[in-house]
User: Fold this.
Amino acid sequence: MEPITFASALANLSSMAPEIWQACRETALMLGIGLFTAILLGGPLGIILYLSQPGQLFANRVVNGVLGWLVNLVRSFPFIILMVSLVPLTRVLVGSTIGPIAAAVPLSFAAIPYFARLVEQTLREIPRGVVEAAEAMGASPLQIIVKVLLNEARSGLISSLTILTISFLSYSAVAGVVGGGGIGDLAIRYGYYRFQTDVMVAMVLLLVVIVQIIQFAGNRLAAHLDKR
Amino acid sequence: MIHLQNIRKRFRRPEGGWFDAVRDTSLSIAPGEVFGLIGFSGAGKSTLLRLINLLERPDAGAVIVDGQDLTSLAPRELRRARQNLGMVFQQFNLLANRTVADNVAFPLEIAGWSRADIEQRVAECLEVVGLQDRANHYPAQLSGGQKQRVGIARALAPRPKVILADEPTSALDPKTTQSILDCLKDINARFGVTVVIVTHEMHVVRSICHRAAVLDAGEVVEVVDVAEGQVDARSELARSLLEAA
Assistant:
Protein backbone atom coordinates (compact mmCIF):
# COMPACT_ATOMS: atom_id res chain seq x y z
CA MET A 1 0.00 0.00 0.00
CA GLU A 2 1.14 3.51 -0.83
CA PRO A 3 2.10 5.66 2.14
CA ILE A 4 -0.38 8.45 2.71
CA THR A 5 0.86 11.94 2.01
CA PHE A 6 -1.16 15.06 2.64
CA ALA A 7 -1.51 15.59 -1.12
CA SER A 8 -2.67 12.04 -1.82
CA ALA A 9 -5.19 12.24 1.05
CA LEU A 10 -6.54 15.49 -0.30
CA ALA A 11 -6.86 14.08 -3.81
CA ASN A 12 -8.55 10.95 -2.50
CA LEU A 13 -10.99 12.93 -0.36
CA SER A 14 -11.88 15.37 -3.09
CA SER A 15 -12.63 12.48 -5.42
CA MET A 16 -15.01 11.23 -2.72
CA ALA A 17 -16.73 14.58 -2.23
CA PRO A 18 -20.11 13.41 -3.60
CA GLU A 19 -20.12 10.43 -1.25
CA ILE A 20 -19.12 12.59 1.71
CA TRP A 21 -21.91 15.04 0.89
CA GLN A 22 -24.33 12.14 0.59
CA ALA A 23 -23.18 10.85 3.98
CA CYS A 24 -23.73 14.26 5.57
CA ARG A 25 -27.27 14.35 4.22
CA GLU A 26 -27.99 10.86 5.51
CA THR A 27 -26.71 11.78 8.95
CA ALA A 28 -28.78 14.95 8.95
CA LEU A 29 -31.87 12.98 7.93
CA MET A 30 -31.40 10.33 10.63
CA LEU A 31 -30.77 12.96 13.29
CA GLY A 32 -33.59 15.17 12.07
CA ILE A 33 -36.18 12.40 12.26
CA GLY A 34 -34.82 11.15 15.60
CA LEU A 35 -34.83 14.59 17.22
CA PHE A 36 -38.22 15.48 15.80
CA THR A 37 -39.75 12.32 17.27
CA ALA A 38 -37.92 12.88 20.54
CA ILE A 39 -39.38 16.37 20.90
CA LEU A 40 -42.84 15.37 19.70
CA LEU A 41 -43.22 12.27 21.90
CA GLY A 42 -40.38 12.42 24.43
CA GLY A 43 -41.17 16.03 25.40
CA PRO A 44 -44.77 15.36 26.49
CA LEU A 45 -43.64 12.10 28.13
CA GLY A 46 -41.08 14.07 30.16
CA ILE A 47 -43.76 16.58 31.17
CA ILE A 48 -46.07 13.76 32.29
CA LEU A 49 -43.21 12.13 34.22
CA TYR A 50 -42.62 15.44 36.00
CA LEU A 51 -46.25 16.31 36.69
CA SER A 52 -47.07 12.84 38.02
CA GLN A 53 -44.34 12.98 40.66
CA PRO A 54 -45.42 13.17 44.31
CA GLY A 55 -46.22 16.75 45.30
CA GLN A 56 -46.74 17.93 41.71
CA LEU A 57 -49.87 19.06 39.89
CA PHE A 58 -51.03 15.59 38.83
CA ALA A 59 -49.26 13.46 41.42
CA ASN A 60 -50.02 9.85 40.54
CA ARG A 61 -47.88 7.07 41.90
CA VAL A 62 -49.11 4.46 39.41
CA VAL A 63 -48.67 6.57 36.26
CA ASN A 64 -45.28 7.83 37.40
CA GLY A 65 -44.14 4.32 38.38
CA VAL A 66 -45.25 2.64 35.15
CA LEU A 67 -43.89 5.34 32.83
CA GLY A 68 -40.62 5.56 34.77
CA TRP A 69 -40.22 1.80 34.53
CA LEU A 70 -40.87 1.80 30.76
CA VAL A 71 -38.40 4.64 30.21
CA ASN A 72 -35.74 2.79 32.19
CA LEU A 73 -36.50 -0.41 30.30
CA VAL A 74 -35.88 1.09 26.86
CA ARG A 75 -32.87 3.00 28.14
CA SER A 76 -31.24 -0.17 29.50
CA PHE A 77 -30.93 -1.75 26.05
CA PRO A 78 -27.51 -1.38 24.45
CA PHE A 79 -28.34 0.61 21.33
CA ILE A 80 -27.13 -2.01 18.88
CA ILE A 81 -29.32 -4.67 20.48
CA LEU A 82 -32.31 -2.33 20.53
CA MET A 83 -31.74 -1.70 16.84
CA VAL A 84 -31.66 -5.38 15.95
CA SER A 85 -34.72 -6.16 18.08
CA LEU A 86 -36.64 -3.39 16.34
CA VAL A 87 -35.97 -4.75 12.85
CA PRO A 88 -39.48 -6.24 12.53
CA LEU A 89 -41.08 -2.95 13.66
CA THR A 90 -38.88 -1.00 11.26
CA ARG A 91 -39.94 -3.26 8.41
CA VAL A 92 -43.60 -2.64 9.23
CA LEU A 93 -43.18 1.13 9.57
CA VAL A 94 -40.80 1.87 6.71
CA GLY A 95 -41.09 -1.19 4.51
CA SER A 96 -37.33 -1.66 4.54
CA THR A 97 -34.59 -2.16 7.10
CA ILE A 98 -31.80 -0.33 5.32
CA GLY A 99 -31.26 3.32 4.57
CA PRO A 100 -31.33 6.39 6.78
CA ILE A 101 -35.11 6.40 7.20
CA ALA A 102 -35.10 2.81 8.42
CA ALA A 103 -32.23 3.63 10.78
CA ALA A 104 -34.22 6.57 12.11
CA VAL A 105 -36.78 4.16 13.62
CA PRO A 106 -34.52 2.68 16.34
CA LEU A 107 -32.87 6.08 16.75
CA SER A 108 -36.25 7.67 17.47
CA PHE A 109 -37.20 4.81 19.73
CA ALA A 110 -34.09 5.35 21.84
CA ALA A 111 -34.32 9.14 21.73
CA ILE A 112 -37.86 9.33 23.17
CA PRO A 113 -37.10 8.03 26.69
CA TYR A 114 -33.70 9.73 26.69
CA PHE A 115 -35.22 13.14 26.00
CA ALA A 116 -38.14 12.45 28.37
CA ARG A 117 -35.69 12.02 31.25
CA LEU A 118 -33.78 15.16 30.27
CA VAL A 119 -37.03 17.16 30.16
CA GLU A 120 -38.15 15.75 33.51
CA GLN A 121 -34.88 16.73 35.17
CA THR A 122 -34.89 20.19 33.65
CA LEU A 123 -38.44 20.87 34.86
CA ARG A 124 -37.48 19.81 38.39
CA GLU A 125 -35.28 22.87 38.67
CA ILE A 126 -38.26 25.23 38.52
CA PRO A 127 -39.13 26.40 42.03
CA ARG A 128 -42.43 24.91 43.22
CA GLY A 129 -43.50 28.35 44.42
CA VAL A 130 -43.63 29.73 40.89
CA VAL A 131 -46.08 27.02 39.84
CA GLU A 132 -48.04 27.67 43.01
CA ALA A 133 -48.24 31.39 42.20
CA ALA A 134 -49.76 30.51 38.81
CA GLU A 135 -52.24 28.15 40.48
CA ALA A 136 -53.21 30.92 42.90
CA MET A 137 -53.92 33.20 39.91
CA GLY A 138 -56.33 30.64 38.51
CA ALA A 139 -54.12 29.31 35.71
CA SER A 140 -55.33 26.13 34.00
CA PRO A 141 -53.03 23.10 33.83
CA LEU A 142 -52.29 23.82 30.15
CA GLN A 143 -51.44 27.46 30.93
CA ILE A 144 -49.15 26.29 33.72
CA ILE A 145 -47.37 23.84 31.41
CA VAL A 146 -46.90 26.27 28.52
CA LYS A 147 -46.53 29.65 30.23
CA VAL A 148 -44.77 28.58 33.40
CA LEU A 149 -43.00 25.23 33.08
CA LEU A 150 -41.80 25.35 29.48
CA ASN A 151 -41.07 29.07 29.50
CA GLU A 152 -39.16 29.01 32.78
CA ALA A 153 -37.22 25.90 31.71
CA ARG A 154 -36.56 27.02 28.12
CA SER A 155 -32.84 27.51 28.55
CA GLY A 156 -32.41 24.12 30.23
CA LEU A 157 -34.52 22.50 27.54
CA ILE A 158 -32.22 23.86 24.83
CA SER A 159 -29.22 22.49 26.74
CA SER A 160 -30.97 19.12 26.99
CA LEU A 161 -31.65 19.16 23.27
CA THR A 162 -27.98 19.91 22.64
CA ILE A 163 -26.93 16.90 24.71
CA LEU A 164 -29.48 14.73 22.90
CA THR A 165 -28.29 15.87 19.46
CA ILE A 166 -24.66 15.13 20.18
CA SER A 167 -25.38 11.72 21.75
CA PHE A 168 -27.50 10.77 18.78
CA LEU A 169 -24.94 11.93 16.27
CA SER A 170 -22.79 9.22 17.79
CA TYR A 171 -25.66 6.69 17.84
CA SER A 172 -26.33 7.41 14.18
CA ALA A 173 -22.86 6.06 13.38
CA VAL A 174 -23.86 2.76 14.99
CA ALA A 175 -27.08 2.79 13.00
CA GLY A 176 -24.96 3.36 9.91
CA VAL A 177 -23.23 0.01 10.37
CA VAL A 178 -26.43 -1.89 9.68
CA GLY A 179 -27.10 -0.01 6.49
CA GLY A 180 -28.23 3.37 7.67
CA GLY A 181 -25.51 5.29 5.90
CA GLY A 182 -24.19 8.58 7.21
CA ILE A 183 -20.83 10.01 8.18
CA GLY A 184 -19.99 7.37 10.78
CA ASP A 185 -20.82 4.63 8.31
CA LEU A 186 -18.53 6.17 5.70
CA ALA A 187 -15.71 6.30 8.25
CA ILE A 188 -16.19 2.64 9.06
CA ARG A 189 -16.66 1.36 5.51
CA TYR A 190 -13.77 3.19 3.87
CA GLY A 191 -11.52 3.93 6.78
CA TYR A 192 -11.83 0.75 8.77
CA TYR A 193 -12.81 -2.03 6.37
CA ARG A 194 -10.77 -0.73 3.42
CA PHE A 195 -7.84 0.59 5.41
CA GLN A 196 -8.21 4.12 4.01
CA THR A 197 -6.97 5.81 7.12
CA ASP A 198 -7.20 9.25 5.53
CA VAL A 199 -10.95 8.85 5.00
CA MET A 200 -11.44 7.68 8.57
CA VAL A 201 -9.44 10.56 10.01
CA ALA A 202 -11.24 13.07 7.80
CA MET A 203 -14.67 11.75 8.81
CA VAL A 204 -13.79 11.80 12.50
CA LEU A 205 -12.53 15.36 12.11
CA LEU A 206 -15.74 16.26 10.36
CA LEU A 207 -17.72 14.83 13.30
CA VAL A 208 -15.52 16.75 15.75
CA VAL A 209 -16.30 19.97 13.92
CA ILE A 210 -20.03 19.24 13.81
CA VAL A 211 -20.12 18.45 17.54
CA GLN A 212 -18.27 21.67 18.35
CA ILE A 213 -20.67 23.69 16.26
CA ILE A 214 -23.77 22.08 17.81
CA GLN A 215 -22.44 22.61 21.33
CA PHE A 216 -21.47 26.20 20.61
CA ALA A 217 -24.82 27.03 19.07
CA GLY A 218 -26.65 25.28 21.93
CA ASN A 219 -24.69 27.17 24.58
CA ARG A 220 -25.25 30.50 22.89
CA LEU A 221 -28.96 29.97 22.47
CA ALA A 222 -29.36 28.70 26.05
CA ALA A 223 -27.49 31.69 27.44
CA HIS A 224 -29.55 34.07 25.34
CA LEU A 225 -32.83 32.58 26.60
CA ASP A 226 -31.76 32.48 30.25
CA LYS A 227 -32.88 35.57 32.16
CA ARG A 228 -32.57 34.06 35.65
CA MET B 1 -65.78 39.17 52.68
CA ILE B 2 -64.10 35.99 53.92
CA HIS B 3 -65.75 33.46 56.22
CA LEU B 4 -63.94 30.35 57.33
CA GLN B 5 -66.35 27.97 59.00
CA ASN B 6 -65.15 25.09 61.16
CA ILE B 7 -62.07 24.49 59.06
CA ARG B 8 -59.87 21.48 59.73
CA LYS B 9 -56.66 20.60 57.97
CA ARG B 10 -54.19 17.87 58.85
CA PHE B 11 -51.03 16.75 57.12
CA ARG B 12 -49.42 13.36 57.09
CA ARG B 13 -46.09 13.48 58.86
CA PRO B 14 -43.18 12.09 56.85
CA GLU B 15 -42.26 9.89 59.83
CA GLY B 16 -45.86 8.65 60.10
CA GLY B 17 -48.96 9.84 61.92
CA TRP B 18 -50.79 13.12 61.46
CA PHE B 19 -50.15 16.75 62.20
CA ASP B 20 -53.13 19.01 62.86
CA ALA B 21 -52.24 22.26 61.12
CA VAL B 22 -55.66 23.85 61.60
CA ARG B 23 -58.23 22.52 64.08
CA ASP B 24 -61.87 23.48 63.89
CA THR B 25 -61.25 27.13 63.19
CA SER B 26 -63.78 29.80 62.27
CA LEU B 27 -62.91 33.32 61.24
CA SER B 28 -64.65 36.26 59.57
CA ILE B 29 -62.81 39.02 57.75
CA ALA B 30 -64.72 42.16 56.77
CA PRO B 31 -64.53 43.87 53.36
CA GLY B 32 -61.80 46.51 53.19
CA GLU B 33 -60.07 45.24 56.28
CA VAL B 34 -56.34 44.62 56.75
CA PHE B 35 -56.34 41.44 58.76
CA GLY B 36 -53.25 39.86 60.32
CA LEU B 37 -52.62 36.19 61.04
CA ILE B 38 -49.92 35.94 63.67
CA GLY B 39 -48.34 33.24 65.77
CA PHE B 40 -45.13 31.33 66.30
CA SER B 41 -43.67 29.00 63.65
CA GLY B 42 -45.89 26.01 63.09
CA ALA B 43 -48.96 27.70 64.57
CA GLY B 44 -50.80 27.14 61.26
CA LYS B 45 -50.96 30.72 60.01
CA SER B 46 -49.63 30.07 56.49
CA THR B 47 -51.84 27.01 56.15
CA LEU B 48 -54.84 29.07 57.20
CA LEU B 49 -54.01 31.69 54.56
CA ARG B 50 -53.55 29.05 51.85
CA LEU B 51 -56.93 27.58 52.78
CA ILE B 52 -58.59 30.86 51.77
CA ASN B 53 -57.75 30.40 48.07
CA LEU B 54 -57.78 26.63 48.39
CA LEU B 55 -54.09 26.13 47.65
CA GLU B 56 -54.72 23.79 50.56
CA ARG B 57 -58.05 22.01 50.58
CA PRO B 58 -59.66 21.76 54.03
CA ASP B 59 -60.51 18.29 55.34
CA ALA B 60 -63.72 19.76 56.76
CA GLY B 61 -65.51 23.09 56.84
CA ALA B 62 -66.48 25.80 54.38
CA VAL B 63 -64.42 28.59 52.83
CA ILE B 64 -66.77 31.40 51.81
CA VAL B 65 -65.28 34.27 49.85
CA ASP B 66 -67.51 37.04 48.53
CA GLY B 67 -70.59 34.92 49.18
CA GLN B 68 -69.30 31.86 47.34
CA ASP B 69 -68.33 28.58 49.00
CA LEU B 70 -65.06 27.79 47.24
CA THR B 71 -64.96 24.20 48.44
CA SER B 72 -68.11 23.45 46.44
CA LEU B 73 -66.77 24.75 43.10
CA ALA B 74 -65.74 22.71 40.08
CA PRO B 75 -62.11 23.22 38.98
CA ARG B 76 -63.01 25.70 36.24
CA GLU B 77 -65.18 27.81 38.58
CA LEU B 78 -62.51 27.70 41.25
CA ARG B 79 -59.98 29.07 38.76
CA ARG B 80 -62.35 31.95 38.03
CA ALA B 81 -62.89 32.61 41.72
CA ARG B 82 -59.13 32.65 42.31
CA GLN B 83 -58.78 35.55 39.88
CA ASN B 84 -60.57 37.54 42.55
CA LEU B 85 -57.92 36.64 45.14
CA GLY B 86 -54.46 38.04 44.55
CA MET B 87 -51.54 36.45 46.37
CA VAL B 88 -48.16 37.80 47.44
CA PHE B 89 -45.39 35.43 48.57
CA GLN B 90 -42.40 35.60 50.87
CA GLN B 91 -40.10 34.39 48.09
CA PHE B 92 -41.88 36.59 45.49
CA ASN B 93 -42.30 33.66 43.07
CA LEU B 94 -41.89 35.80 39.96
CA LEU B 95 -41.36 34.26 36.55
CA ALA B 96 -37.63 34.67 35.98
CA ASN B 97 -37.86 34.57 32.18
CA ARG B 98 -40.48 37.29 31.94
CA THR B 99 -39.89 41.00 32.27
CA VAL B 100 -41.45 43.01 35.08
CA ALA B 101 -44.27 44.16 32.78
CA ASP B 102 -44.89 40.62 31.53
CA ASN B 103 -45.00 39.32 35.10
CA VAL B 104 -47.71 41.82 35.96
CA ALA B 105 -49.48 40.94 32.70
CA PHE B 106 -49.45 37.23 33.52
CA PRO B 107 -52.64 37.01 35.64
CA LEU B 108 -54.43 39.15 33.03
CA GLU B 109 -53.41 36.79 30.22
CA ILE B 110 -54.77 33.95 32.32
CA ALA B 111 -58.01 35.83 32.83
CA GLY B 112 -58.27 36.37 29.07
CA TRP B 113 -57.92 40.17 28.90
CA SER B 114 -57.30 41.83 25.53
CA ARG B 115 -53.79 42.96 24.67
CA ALA B 116 -54.70 46.66 24.83
CA ASP B 117 -56.43 46.35 28.21
CA ILE B 118 -53.47 44.40 29.57
CA GLU B 119 -51.01 47.04 28.45
CA GLN B 120 -52.99 49.83 30.10
CA ARG B 121 -53.60 47.95 33.34
CA VAL B 122 -49.95 46.87 33.64
CA ALA B 123 -48.85 50.50 33.32
CA GLU B 124 -51.36 51.53 36.01
CA CYS B 125 -50.25 48.83 38.43
CA LEU B 126 -46.55 49.53 37.92
CA GLU B 127 -47.27 53.14 38.72
CA VAL B 128 -49.08 52.20 41.93
CA VAL B 129 -45.96 50.36 43.14
CA GLY B 130 -43.57 52.93 41.68
CA LEU B 131 -41.81 50.71 39.17
CA GLN B 132 -42.75 52.32 35.82
CA ASP B 133 -39.08 52.72 34.94
CA ARG B 134 -38.35 49.03 35.52
CA ALA B 135 -41.01 47.63 33.17
CA ASN B 136 -38.52 46.02 30.80
CA HIS B 137 -36.13 44.67 33.43
CA TYR B 138 -36.01 41.02 34.40
CA PRO B 139 -36.55 39.99 38.04
CA ALA B 140 -32.87 39.01 38.40
CA GLN B 141 -31.95 42.66 37.84
CA LEU B 142 -34.08 43.88 40.77
CA SER B 143 -33.54 44.19 44.52
CA GLY B 144 -35.64 42.18 46.96
CA GLY B 145 -37.90 45.12 47.71
CA GLN B 146 -38.44 45.80 44.01
CA LYS B 147 -39.24 42.13 43.39
CA GLN B 148 -41.88 42.26 46.09
CA ARG B 149 -43.35 45.40 44.51
CA VAL B 150 -43.66 43.46 41.26
CA GLY B 151 -45.34 40.71 43.28
CA ILE B 152 -47.82 43.22 44.66
CA ALA B 153 -48.48 44.81 41.25
CA ARG B 154 -49.08 41.31 39.85
CA ALA B 155 -51.52 40.48 42.65
CA LEU B 156 -53.31 43.80 42.15
CA ALA B 157 -53.56 43.62 38.35
CA PRO B 158 -56.83 41.66 37.90
CA ARG B 159 -58.61 44.08 40.31
CA PRO B 160 -59.06 41.46 43.04
CA LYS B 161 -61.30 42.04 46.04
CA VAL B 162 -58.78 40.33 48.32
CA ILE B 163 -55.00 40.15 48.48
CA LEU B 164 -53.48 37.32 50.48
CA ALA B 165 -49.94 38.08 51.64
CA ASP B 166 -47.84 35.22 52.99
CA GLU B 167 -44.98 36.70 55.04
CA PRO B 168 -44.46 39.37 52.37
CA THR B 169 -41.67 41.16 54.25
CA SER B 170 -39.85 38.28 55.92
CA ALA B 171 -37.17 38.12 53.22
CA LEU B 172 -36.54 41.87 53.33
CA ASP B 173 -34.47 44.26 55.46
CA PRO B 174 -36.29 46.56 57.95
CA LYS B 175 -36.24 49.66 55.77
CA THR B 176 -37.56 47.84 52.71
CA THR B 177 -40.11 46.13 54.94
CA GLN B 178 -41.63 49.47 55.87
CA SER B 179 -41.89 50.58 52.24
CA ILE B 180 -43.62 47.33 51.27
CA LEU B 181 -46.05 47.71 54.18
CA ASP B 182 -46.77 51.28 53.13
CA CYS B 183 -47.43 50.01 49.63
CA LEU B 184 -49.96 47.44 50.89
CA LYS B 185 -51.56 50.02 53.16
CA ASP B 186 -51.86 52.42 50.23
CA ILE B 187 -53.52 49.80 48.05
CA ASN B 188 -55.96 48.96 50.82
CA ALA B 189 -56.84 52.62 51.33
CA ARG B 190 -57.07 53.60 47.65
CA PHE B 191 -58.83 50.59 46.20
CA GLY B 192 -60.59 49.14 49.24
CA VAL B 193 -58.93 45.78 48.68
CA THR B 194 -59.22 43.44 51.67
CA VAL B 195 -55.73 42.37 52.75
CA VAL B 196 -54.99 39.24 54.77
CA ILE B 197 -51.39 39.17 55.91
CA VAL B 198 -49.45 36.38 57.59
CA THR B 199 -46.53 37.52 59.67
CA HIS B 200 -44.43 36.69 62.70
CA GLU B 201 -43.17 40.28 62.94
CA MET B 202 -45.22 42.24 65.42
CA HIS B 203 -44.41 45.66 64.05
CA VAL B 204 -46.08 44.54 60.81
CA VAL B 205 -49.31 44.00 62.73
CA ARG B 206 -48.98 47.32 64.52
CA SER B 207 -48.20 49.27 61.41
CA ILE B 208 -50.91 48.07 59.02
CA CYS B 209 -53.48 45.71 60.52
CA HIS B 210 -56.94 46.70 61.67
CA ARG B 211 -57.44 43.38 63.39
CA ALA B 212 -55.36 40.27 63.83
CA ALA B 213 -55.99 36.65 64.78
CA VAL B 214 -53.50 35.11 67.16
CA LEU B 215 -52.92 31.46 66.33
CA ASP B 216 -51.46 28.70 68.41
CA ALA B 217 -51.29 24.99 67.59
CA GLY B 218 -53.80 25.32 64.77
CA GLU B 219 -56.38 27.28 66.73
CA VAL B 220 -57.38 30.93 66.93
CA VAL B 221 -56.61 31.96 70.50
CA GLU B 222 -57.91 35.48 70.17
CA VAL B 223 -58.86 38.09 67.59
CA VAL B 224 -57.38 41.42 68.65
CA ASP B 225 -58.24 44.94 67.56
CA VAL B 226 -55.37 47.16 66.53
CA ALA B 227 -56.05 50.90 66.59
CA GLU B 228 -53.47 53.62 66.17
CA GLY B 229 -50.69 51.19 66.89
CA GLN B 230 -52.34 50.13 70.17
CA VAL B 231 -53.17 46.48 70.61
CA ASP B 232 -55.92 45.43 72.91
CA ALA B 233 -54.91 41.90 73.83
CA ARG B 234 -56.38 39.77 76.59
CA SER B 235 -54.77 36.36 76.26
CA GLU B 236 -51.33 35.63 77.64
CA LEU B 237 -50.06 34.49 74.24
CA ALA B 238 -51.33 37.56 72.39
CA ARG B 239 -49.65 39.80 74.93
CA SER B 240 -46.35 37.98 74.77
CA LEU B 241 -46.45 38.08 70.98
CA LEU B 242 -47.59 41.61 70.50
CA GLU B 243 -45.97 43.44 73.34
CA ALA B 244 -42.57 41.80 73.14
CA ALA B 245 -41.16 43.90 70.36
Q: What stands out?
A: The first strand of chain B starts at residue 2 and ends at 12.
